UniProtKB/TrEMBL annotation:
NCBIfam families: PRK11713.1-5, RsmE family RNA methyltransferase. GO terms for cellular component: cytoplasm. Keywords: Cytoplasm, Methyltransferase, rRNA processing, S-adenosyl-L-methionine, Transferase. It catalyses: uridine(1498) in 16S rRNA + S-adenosyl-L-methionine = N(3)-methyluridine(1498) in 16S rRNA + S-adenosyl-L-homocysteine + H(+). Specifically methylates the N3 position of the uracil ring of uridine 1498 (m3U1498) in 16S rRNA. Acts on the fully assembled 30S ribosomal subunit. One of its GO terms (biological process) is rRNA base methylation. This is Ribosomal RNA small subunit methyltransferase E. The keyword S-adenosyl-L-methionine applies. Residues 75-182 form the Ribosomal RNA small subunit methyltransferase E methyltransferase domain. Its main location: cytoplasm.
Length: 190
């Protein structure tokens, strides 16, 4: 049986105990129906995976005994920030999931001139929390050591200003004449 990989935002220490947060505890206790003595793998975004053994489990609370951390070397050395235009329905969820799987570091939802989706106030906060949970689930599934940050919604001009210090900035277009593979990063040797 596959060992479940679970994200926690708690600090993890070797030999210590940790209580899983509500979402993780519900997933482990209710969905997976794991019992004391079973193993799982925890990560908290610090670059390590932590083998753990469940010491107590109920439907709402799960406590684990944390083992020796293991370095997770699956992260890309590149810092990739994706500006993604807001999409209707679950297409934005899909874009976030695939971006996490491809190694993106941060995701910026973009509100564009012709974008049908408009988010403000509480609705924006709710969507950002939802997309962050999608990113967490995708990181759990694909084995990433870090969960990408979902930044607040920006306009394209705000995003370009925000990313001014980036070494390479690309705007992708489906009708371009240049292939992505033809671009050589500035510090790469030809």
């Amino acid at each position: 049986m596959r060992i479940p990989r679970i994200y926690t935002d708690s600090a993890l220490t070797e030999g210590g105990t940790a209580a899983l947060d509500d979402n993780a505890a519900q997933h482990v206790g209710r969905v997976l129906r794991m019992q004391p003595g079973q193993e799982l793998l925890l990560f908290n975004g610090d670059g390590n995976d932590y083998p753990a053994t469940i010491s107590s489990a109920s439907k709402k609370n799960v406590e684990v005994q944390v083992g020796t951390p293991e370095a997770n070397t699956t992260e890309s050395p590149l810092e990739i920030v994706l500006g993604q235009t807001l999409s209707k329905g679950d297409r934005m969820d899909y874009a976030v999931q695939k971006a996490v799987e491809m190694g993106v570091t941060r995701i910026v939802p973009l509100s564009t001139e012709r974008c049908d989706v408009k988010l403000k106030g509480d609705r924006e906060d709710k969507r950002l929390r939802h997309w962050q949970s999608v990113a967490i689930s995708a990181a759990e599934q694909c084995g990433r050591a870090r969960v990408p940050e979902i930044l607040p919604v920006m306009t394209v001009s705000q995003w370009l200003e925000h990313s001014r210090d980036c070494e390479v900035r690309l705007v992708l277009h489906h009708r371009t004449e240049h292939a992505l593979k033809s671009i050589i990063p500035p510090n790469a040797s030809p």
